[in-house]
Every structure is written in structure tokens, then in C-alpha cells.
Design brief:
Elements (H helix, E strand, L loop, with lengths): L1 E8 L9 E4 L4 E3 L5 E6 L6 E6 L6 E5 L5 E5 L4 E8 L9 E8 L6 E8 L4 E4 L5 E10 L4 E4 L3 E3 L4 E8 L12
Parallel strand pairs: 1-7, 8-15
Antiparallel strand pairs: 1-4, 2-3, 2-5, 5-6, 8-11, 9-10, 9-12, 12-13, 12-14
Length: about 180
């Protein structure tokens, strides 16, 4: 029996060009209406499927040969937050950010980088769903903070992380001699 269906986004719109794959096996791409046909499969059992498309979070689902199935892709998660200093950290200093994300999909770590504005606000888009396991902010000049906030990165949502930098040393704050 044929294993057929449609890939749509969270708003129900068809996703053209999505890759649909049988777990560990064959794959196909969706057409203009988001439709896919993975060919014939034995009747009566569920088949594990995976769908992915550029700019959207990967999803997993099941299909039954001979029964139309729909796979829904969600928007990618976003991490955002702020950095504020205390005890001698200059306001408006630029910060480089590194986010490490533990993704359940492939069991590995992915690293993303960005910059905080002079207002201390930062935002990194297009992250894979998973668990944010480390945020590191580094001020130009070497002042650092490291947090492990175990924040869930949920498709279509923004995870907020607020960092407070510890006080600068006398030398780093310009008070040293």
C-alpha cells in the first residue's frame, strides 16, 4: 500500500521542498502542495517518518500505509537575553556570546555565536530544538561569565537567559596601577 501524505507548517500552509524520510531509509521531497509519496509498504504497520525543511524545526511522526498522514513543521527556536555588569563593569561594553545546544535529534552539541548590543541585549535565531546547556559571554578584554541554565529550546518559542557579569578586577576596571 502507498505511504502518502502532506507536510505543513504550524499555520497549516503546505511546505514545498520538505525532505520526508522513512527512519533509516528512503526519502523524497514534497511538491508544491506539500504532498509526498514514499512508495509501497506492507499494510497494517506504522512507519516512523522524519520531515525537515530549511528554516523550520525537524519533526518526527508515524504514517500508516494506505492512510493519508500529515507532518507538521514548527518554526525554529530562538534564544534571547541580556547581559548586565556589576561592580565596575563598564556599561555599553561589547560582548561576544557563545551558545552550546545539546540536540536530541543527533545526540551532539552544536555551537552558535553572536554579539550583544551596547544595551546588553542579544538574540540568536534559527537554533535547533534541544537543551541550551551553556551560555558564555566574553567582554572585550577578557572578563568572562559561564552559566549552564538547562533551558529548553522549544520550536516557535523564545528562551530568555539573563547574564550578570561578576565585578571586574581592579586592573580590568582601570583602577589598577
Amino acid at each position: 500500500m502507498p505511504l502518502v501524505g502532506q507536510v505543513v507548517d504550524w499555520a497549516g500552509e503546505a511546505v514545498e521542498g520538505a525532505r520526508v524520510q522513512v527512519d533509516g531509509g528512503d526519502f523524497t521531497q514534497t511538491g508544491a502542495a506539500g504532498r509526498f509519496d514514499l512508495g509501497a509498504f506492507p499494510a497494517g504497520g506504522l512507519v516512523s517518518l522524519r520531515a525537515e525543511a530549511a528554516g523550520l524545526a525537524t519533526t518526527r511522526g508515524e504514517g500508516m500505509p494506505g492512510v493519508e498522514c500529515t507532518l507538521v513543521l514548527q518554526p525554529l527556536p530562538v534564544a534571547a537575553g541580556s547581559i548586565q555588569g556589576s561592580d565596575g563593569v563598564a556599561p555599553g561594553a561589547p560582548f561576544h556570546l557563545t551558545l552550546s545546544v545539546d540536540t536530541d535529534a543527533d545526540g551532539g552539541m552544536r555551537v552558535f555565536e553572536g554579539e550583544a548590543g551596547t544595551d546588553g541585549l542579544w538574540r540568536i535565531e534559527g537554533l535547533p530544538a534541544g537543551r541550551l546547556v551553556e551560555v558564555r559571554a566574553e567582554e572585550t578584554g577578557g572578563l568572562r561569565i559561564q552559566e549552564r541554565p538547562d533551558v529548553a529550546l522549544v520550536p516557535g518559542q523564545t528562551a530568555f537567559v539573563h547574564l550578570v557579569l561578576p565585578g571586574a578586577s581592579a586592573e580590568a576596571a582601570g583602577d589598577g596601577g
